[in-house]
Amino acid sequence: MNDADNVLLSVRAEARQLVAPDYAVLDGLLEHTAGSKAEAVGSITASLDRLTADLAALGGVPFGEATGRRPLTWSAYSSATREESYHDKETGRLERTGQVTATVALQVTVRDLDTLDDLGGVLAARPGLNVHGVMWHVDWDNPAWPQVRAAAIGAAFGKARDYAAALGATLRQVEHIADAGLLGADTAPHVVAGRALSARAGQSGTPALNPVPQELIATIEARFRTTEVSLPGT
Questions:
Q1: Where does the chain hold its CATH 3.30.110.170 domain(s)?
Q2: How far is CA 205 from CA 21, 26, 127, 200, in A?
Q3: Label partner for 94 (CA 20 to 30 A): which of 68, 131, 165, 209?
């Protein structure tokens, strides 16, 4: 059979699967205000020391290259101070209050999800700490990824078979299997090959640490050759 006697079918297929998250990342900010910069810095340093001691009691360690997948890690990755001011309605100018605020940005990553209740209690009990975001994640090597990718390939075969049957043909061979967008020019909206959706806390304070199922998405493109197709009237 000559390639001119058959049809090249190109399809895009997708598969989705809900899985439990592998870990959570909490973003927070420690903040203390005092009458001088030295006092504010000293106060927030002491507060950070107490917080990290509480995290250590839960098995937490500082985040680093060798601790990336430990059950509980933390990172105080930036600090700053600022003079407090307010807008004077009479003069229209910003006026200083004489107070200084010190802040430390903190990120806590927890993989042992059984400790979430204890971790939430530690964070809620720490004055001056505002946890403003919680993101749930799935690892790139989660065992569910091969399953959802295989399901996407199966969906592509099913779609191609439907098209071939409508032409009075059957699938003969696979030409290509690729992540979406890799089979040449594509004017369709970009679709990632696989991703994990995340949930973020919507308000300040210490949100409830309830694991949110994550949706894994695998999108592929495939090309197939069919058996000979006879057009109507020929």
A1: 3-20+142-228
A2: 22, 12, 11, 13
A3: 131
Going by C-alpha positions, the residue among 141, 83, 137 that lies closest to residue 107 is: 137
> 183: which 2 tokens?
């089979």
| Structure confidence by residue, pLDDT tens digits, 190-220 | 333 444 444 444 444 566 789 999 999 999 9
Q: Which tokens in the block code for residue 229?
A: 């197709």
Residues of the chain with CATH 3.30.70.360: 23-137
Give the DSSP H or E segment for 108.
strand 94-110
> For the chain, how many helices (H) and strands (E)?
3, 9
**3-20+142-228 CATH fold:** Translation Initiation Factor IF3 (3.30.110)
- CA distance linking residue 95 with residue 92, whole number of Å: 9
Task: For the chain, list the strands marked E by DSSP.
Answer: 6-19, 23-34, 61-62, 72-87, 94-110, 129-137, 171-179, 194-196, 214-228
Question: Residue 167 in contact with residue 230, Cβ under 8 Å?
Answer: no
The pTM of the full predicted model, rounded to 2 decimals, is 0.81
Which of 125, 146, 1 shows the shortest CA–CA distance to 57?
125
Closest by alpha carbon to 19, among 208, 200, 212? 212
Distance CA 136, CA 110 (A): 10
CATH topology of domain 23-137: Alpha-Beta Plaits (3.30.70)
pLDDT digits (tens, 9 = 90+) for 131-151: 988 999 999 999 999 999 999
> Who's near 77: CB < 8 A, 6+ residues apart?
105, 106, 107
